[in-house]
Design brief:
Distance between the termini of chain A: 66 Å
Number of helices of chain A: 6
Number of strands of chain A: 0
Number of helices of chain B: 9
Oligomer: heterodimer
Structural class of chain B: mainly alpha
Subcellular location (chain A): Nucleus
InterPro entries (chain A): INO80F, TFPT
Order of helices and strands of chain B: HHHHHHHHH
Pfam family, one (chain A): INO80F
Helix content of chain A: over 70%
Main location (chain A): nucleus
Largest sheet of chain B: none
Keywords (chain A): Nucleus
Radius of gyration of chain A: 33 Å
Number of strands of chain B: 0
Largest sheet of chain A: none
Shape of chain A: rod-shaped
Distance between the termini of chain B: 97 Å
Order of helices and strands of chain A: HHHHHH
Strand content of chain B: under 5%
Structural class of chain A: mainly alpha
Shape of chain B: flat
Chain lengths: ~140, ~300
């Protein structure tokens, strides 16, 4: 019986691991396909960029000396596009907001205080109830 | 199998004991002691071997597989992490390149617009560049068209060699194919004609065979009766006389008419005359010979 139980346990573990391996393998294949596609697109864009550079050089443009001001807002948009980072940034904004803007600080601070105040009076109610119930028996006697 | 072996060993020991009993009484005690150890020895290794075999089979099947799968899973996880990182880096690179592209396009539009509107040297330069780009586009289209034509030619090429094995003639394949098909029909008709001829020959051969068979019984039947033999002798005698002189024939004819002989004798004379007149008709002669046989019967 013990041997059979062990065999069954190992069998179940083997099946679970096999399924998990299959899933990860499939995910890896999908990632590879995506990476190849992106590389292809990047190659095309690089080709386009080279052509544009040549054309601008022919026109005598000083595009190389232009300062890099635009990427800041684009950077934010890029981060927003991604799933996990926008949440982190929102949290950072919330933390940064009270320091930068005093106006919104007060309602944020007031709300938790109100909640705390609400919680405080609720607690004594159940405390008072048992002493009322306790003296009732002696009155009856 | 092992149990059988132990039973045999026990039987051998019992035989030994039986043989040893008559000489003395002290010996029977020793074989009793000897019997106990082999039983215990036999039981232990059998159980241990079966237990070890079962454990080994189960463990090797699932436990080892479990270990191997753990290693494989670890490797796959590392590989997945690597691919994820690679994907992120490529995405960032793509974003960077796309940003650069948009920036450069914006800069180029600033220069291109006034060049198109005004007719200065910049306009001429732009016009020179534009036809180059257009010529490139046209060249691409031409190359694509040429490729399409080549494809069509390539498609046509395998079709042409396909025709000769089916149709040796050249030209409009459909019309000529129809003609040749119509031409093939008489060939098909000719084949059944040949077959018909073969059938005719086949029909002729069996027709020839039966008369050969028929001739044999005729030869046998005359020899059976004596009367027939006499008739044959009579028939043989007149033949040389008739051949020698034609007058004898004329003499014999009136003699037969005048003598008023029996009808049986008249018939062989007639048969002889028929032989003189029509020698080629052997079948008719055979038929006539049959008639007198019937009269005799």
């Amino acid at each position: 019986m013990l041997l059979n139980k062990k065999e069954l346990m190992y069998k179940q573990l083997v099946e679970k691991l096999y399924d998990r391996c299959q899933r990860i393998q499939a995910e890896n294949e999908r990632c590879v396909m995506r990476v190849n596609g992106i590389k292809k697109i990047v190659r095309r864009r690089n080709h386009d960029v080279e052509l544009l550079k040549r054309r601008l050089d022919k026109h005598g443009d000083d595009w190389r000396s232009v300062p890099m001001e635009a990427p800041h807002p684009k950077g934010k948009t890029e981060q927003k596009r991604r799933g996990p980072k926008p949440k982190n940034k929102q949290a950072a904004d919330e933390t940064g907001a009270p320091g930068s803007e005093p106006g919104p600080n007060t309602p944020a601070a007031r709300k938790p205080r109100k909640q705390k105040a609400k919680q405080a009076p609720i607690n004594p109610n159940p405390v008072i109830a048992p002493p009322h119930q306790q003296p009732q028996p002696p009155l009856l006697t | 199998m092992l149990d059988g072996w132990y039973c045999r060993s026990l039987a051998n020991q019992e035989d030994g004991a039986i043989k040893d009993e008559p000489p003395s009484d002290d010996e029977p005690a020793q074989p009793a002691r000897d019997r106990v150890p082999p039983i215990s020895r036999g039981a232990a290794p059998a159980s241990s071997s079966s237990v070890s075999a079962g454990l080994g089979a189960g463990e090797t099947d699932f436990k080892e597989r479990y270990k191997n799968l753990k290693k494989k899973l670890k490797f796959l996880i590392y590989e997945n992490e690597y691919f994820q990182d690679l994907l992120h880096t490529n995405q960032r690179r793509l974003l960077k390149v796309s940003r650069d592209r948009t920036f450069l396009l914006d800069r180029l539009l600033v220069y291109e617009k006034p060049a198109k509107d005004s007719s200065d040297s910049d306009a001429t330069d732009s016009s020179d560049s534009e036809p180059a780009s257009t010529s490139g586009v046209a060249g691409g289209s031409q190359t694509s068209k040429d490729a399409i034509r080549r494809k069509h030619k390539d498609k046509g090429a395998p079709g042409i060699p396909g025709v000769p094995p089916h149709m040796p003639t050249v030209g409009a394949p459909r019309g000529r194919r129809r003609k040749i098909l119509t031409g093939m029909l008489p060939a098909n008709h000719g084949i059944p004609a040949i077959a018909a001829k073969k059938q005719l020959t086949a029909t002729v051969s069996p027709s020839q065979q039966p008369p050969q068979l028929q001739t044999a019984p005729k030869d046998v039947s005359p020899g059976l009766s004596q009367a027939e033999i006499a008739r044959q002798l009579q028939e043989r005698r007149p033949t040389p006389l008739e051949l020698l002189s034609p007058e004898c024939t004329s003499a014999t004819v009136p003699t037969t008419m005048l003598s008023d002989e029996s009808p049986s004798k008249c018939y062989p004379n007639e048969s002889l005359q028929h032989l003189m007149e029509d020698d080629s008709h052997s079948h008719e002669v055979a038929a006539e010979e049959c008639v007198p046989m019937e009269y005799t019967s």
